[in-house]
Design brief:
single chain, 229 residues, alpha/beta, TIM Barrel, 10 helices, EC 5.3.1.1
Amino acid sequence: MKPPIILINYKAYENSYGERGYEISRKIEKVSKEYGVPVIVTVPATMIYKLSKETELIVYAQHVDGLEHGAKTGSILPEMVKDAGGKGSLLNHSERRIRLDEIHDAVIRMRKIGLESVVCVDRYELVYSMGILKPDAILIEPPELIGSGVAVSKAKPEVITKAVDEIKKVPGVYLVAGAGITSGEDVYKAVELGADGIGVASAVMRAKEPERVVAEFINQALKALEKRS
């Protein structure tokens, strides 16, 4: 994982699985290759194996349980994700909240077997406390802006700048900004403010031409990083 981090959450949209899920993934993969920028896709568990084997995308689970093997019906263990070819997992998304001890256990167990982790928080005050767990990245998303079309970088830029200050206290952990990002301008502003990348969902998954959206996001993220350097 390295900036610019482009993370696309497939959620459970109609085109997040099956043949439609595969088609949109190939479009995203093509853009990723053109720009030479790896793209992380967090996909339904049923898609991890196929996309890991048939694309060069970085495939994450949308959730894992930090549990040991055993009688755990319905659980998705880190070992299962790794065996299917996944490289990591999203944790604690606002639509899939888990307890702090569960986040801790999942991050620790994933790290032990070589999987990456991105932990979601809904406010900058939690960035440092979650960062202490040493996930690979913290994704900050004010829940009221998720899917709103109003980007956090515009509506609440102070959330990003304050989160940047907090992430500096835990070296080695990246900061990703999400919620309401719909345009290249939103991406540019988020990275300009100090984020290492962006997390999006509906802006790509509901787009008529998702490849063009992803291309614009990557292009603007690269421009913002170049300006910062």
